[in-house]
Amino acid sequence: MSVRVFSVTVRDHMMIAHSFRGEVFGPAQRLHGATYVVDATFRRADLDADNIVVDIALATRELNAVLAELNLRNLDDEPAFAGVNTSTEALAKVVADRLADRVHAGRLGEGARGLAAIAVTLHESHVAWAGYERDL
Amino acid sequence: MSVRVFSVTVRDHMMIAHSFRGEVFGPAQRLHGATYVVDATFRRADLDADNIVVDIALATRELNAVLAELNLRNLDDEPAFAGVNTSTEALAKVVADRLADRVHAGRLGEGARGLAAIAVTLHESHVAWAGYERDL
Amino acid sequence: MSVRVFSVTVRDHMMIAHSFRGEVFGPAQRLHGATYVVDATFRRADLDADNIVVDIALATRELNAVLAELNLRNLDDEPAFAGVNTSTEALAKVVADRLADRVHAGRLGEGARGLAAIAVTLHESHVAWAGYERDL
Amino acid sequence: MSVRVFSVTVRDHMMIAHSFRGEVFGPAQRLHGATYVVDATFRRADLDADNIVVDIALATRELNAVLAELNLRNLDDEPAFAGVNTSTEALAKVVADRLADRVHAGRLGEGARGLAAIAVTLHESHVAWAGYERDL
Amino acid sequence: MSVRVFSVTVRDHMMIAHSFRGEVFGPAQRLHGATYVVDATFRRADLDADNIVVDIALATRELNAVLAELNLRNLDDEPAFAGVNTSTEALAKVVADRLADRVHAGRLGEGARGLAAIAVTLHESHVAWAGYERDL
Amino acid sequence: MSVRVFSVTVRDHMMIAHSFRGEVFGPAQRLHGATYVVDATFRRADLDADNIVVDIALATRELNAVLAELNLRNLDDEPAFAGVNTSTEALAKVVADRLADRVHAGRLGEGARGLAAIAVTLHESHVAWAGYERDL
What we know:
6 copies of one chain form a homohexamer.
Chain A: E1 4-18, E2 32-44, H1 56-68, H2 88-104, E3 117-125, E4 128-135
Antiparallel strand pairs in A: 1-2, 2-3, 3-4
C-alpha cells in the first residue's frame, strides 16, 4: 500500500477560564484559566489546482473565527459546555469539529472540499498539550 | 568600564483566571484566563565557591513555591490583588519581588546572598510576553 | 473507514552519559552525554468518564519515575544496557515500553486501561530528535 | 494488528525567493521570500545492526545537500519549477522525493535501505508550516 | 543605583526577498529571501495608570503596520533601501525606528509616551537572529 | 544618555559528559551528561562598512570551532577543567572567553574588531539555561 499525504498547519491562540468537576482534577477543580496555543492541521493525499492543500489565508481566518467563539470567556458559563469537563483534549475536538463544519460549508474555499482529515493540537503549557484528529 | 555578568534561568508555569478593568482592555474585561510560562533569571558578577550562580534545585523549588501561591486560582478573588489589574507585566513584578524576599530570607541558600539582580518573564502566548527586572 | 483519535502529551527531561560502539558513530564512540527532553504521548479513540485521555498528574508522575531510573547516570554502567548501543531511538523504546508496563500495572489509573498507544520522542538537540510508537 | 515504528528527525534550513500565480495567493503573487526550517523524519519498524534508524551524520549531510540545491536562490528562475507554484507543501514533496532518491542510491548508508518512510516538514513562520509524507 | 524595568513584547513576522552586495556575503549575493519572525519589546521603569507598559492591542496593530510596509516585497526594489545592504540587524533598526516614530506620533496611545526604550529582534532561522535596541 | 546597540546571535550545540563535586549538586555528583544548545551573541553600537555586526559565516565557523574543543568529551578528563566544577554558567564563560580570544586574533574578520561585547547562553534543558556576558 502506497502512502502519500500532504499537510498544512496554522497556529493561533485563545485565553479562557474554566473549572473541572471530578476528584481526578485535584486543585484544578477551582476556577482557573489557560492559554491554548492552537495548531490546526489539514491533510489530503493530493494538492489542488493551485498546488496547495488549502488556502492558508482562509484557514487562518476560519481558525481565528472558531477560536473567537471561545476566546476571553469563562467556559463554565457557556451553554455549549454545560455539565461537560472542558479538558484540553475535549476542546481540541470542539475546535476540530467546528473547523470540519466550516470546511463542509465551503468557508475554506471550494478546493478545501478535497481535504481528507483535520488534526487540532492545544498546547496548554511548555510541558503539556493534547490533540484530536478526525477524517472529513 | 568592564562588564561581566553570569546568569542562571529556571522555567515553570501557572494557570490562572482573571479579568481587567479599563476600556483599554476591550474584551479582556470579561473573566478569562491564561497560562503563564515563567522564566526566573538570577544574575551576579562572580560565581560562588561551588562555581555556580545559585543552587538550581533551590531556585527551581522556590520559583515553584512562589507560583503555587497563584496557580489554579481566580486572581480576581485574591485579596493581594484587590483593585489591581493583574496584567502580565504586573504579575512579573509580583513573582520577582516574592523571589527577592526569599533570597533575602536565605531560602535559596547562603550563596544566593551574593545575587545582584532578578529578572522574571511571563510568556502568555506564542506571540506575547512581559517581564520585570530589579536589583537585589 | 472513520478515524478519530485523542492524545495527551507530557514533557520532562533526563541528563545522561554514554558512549557508542561501531564506526558509524565516529567521535561519539568517546564517552560523552546528552540532555533528552522527553515527550510521552498517550492515544485513544474515546475519552474516559472524566472526559480525558489520561490523568495528566499521574502521566507526569509516571514519566518522571521512568526517567528517574535513567537520569544523572552513565548508561555504560547500567546492566540493563550491557552490550547495547543506547541510541536516542533505542532509549525512546525503553521509555515507551516502561510506560506501557506502568499502564498495564494500573499506575496511570483505571481509566488509563483504555489507552490504545504510546509514542515517546527524545529531543537530543535543537537539530535532532528520535521517537518510538507502539500500541498497548 | 501490532504497531511499532521508530523514527529519527534532523533539522536544517534554506532561504529562498519566489512568487505565486493565482488569485488565491493575494499579495504573495509579488516576488517575496521565505526561510524554511526543514525537518526530515526517517521511519522504520525495526532498528538496524547498530541499533539505529539511520546514520544521523549521513542523514544530516544528505538533507543539507538536498537543501543546497535550493538554498539562496530565486525559485522562479529554476527550470525544475517552471510553471509550478512552489508552495510550502509542494516544496516539502520535492525535498522528501529527493531524499528518497538518495536513500535508494545508497547515500544514507546500506542500513538505510531498510527505511520504510520519509516525512518532511517545512516551517515558514512561527504560525504556519506544511509537510509531506511518503513511503519508500 | 537601583534598577527596575518593565517590558512587554509582541511577535509578528514578514517574508521578503533581497540580495546583498559585498564578498563577505558569499552566495547570499544572489537574490534569495527570508522569513523574519519579529519580536518588538517596549520598556519603561514604571507602569501607566492601567498598570501596563503599553496597550498590547495597539502595540500588535502598530508592529503589524510597520511590517506591512516591508512584507511580501523584494527589498531590492524599495527606494528606501537603495544602495543599502538590508542585513537582519539593519532591518531590526528600521523596524525599531519606525515603531519609535509611531510612539512619538501617539499611535500606541497616550500612555505609551512614557516608554523608555524599544528593542527589536528579527529571527531569520532556528540558528540565527539579530536585533537593535534604542531609547525613546 | 543615548543607548543604541546592535546584536547578532548564532546557535550551535555540544554534547558532553561530566560530574560535579559538592553536596549542593546532589545526584549530579554522579557522572552524567548534557546537551548544551549554545547561543553566541555579538554586540556593537554601530554597523561596519558592510552594514553588519559580524560576518555571520565566520561567527558560525568560530563558534563551531570553540565547541569542537569540548564536544563529545568527558570534561572530567580535560586538563583545562581539573579541579573545577564545569557548571553551565562556568562553561558559558569558557565559550565566551575563547570566542573573545578569536575576535582579538582576527579570526572573525577585521570588521569584528569593532565588537563591543559577547554574550553566551547554554541551554541545558527546556527548563534551565545559564549565560555569561562580557565586554571586549
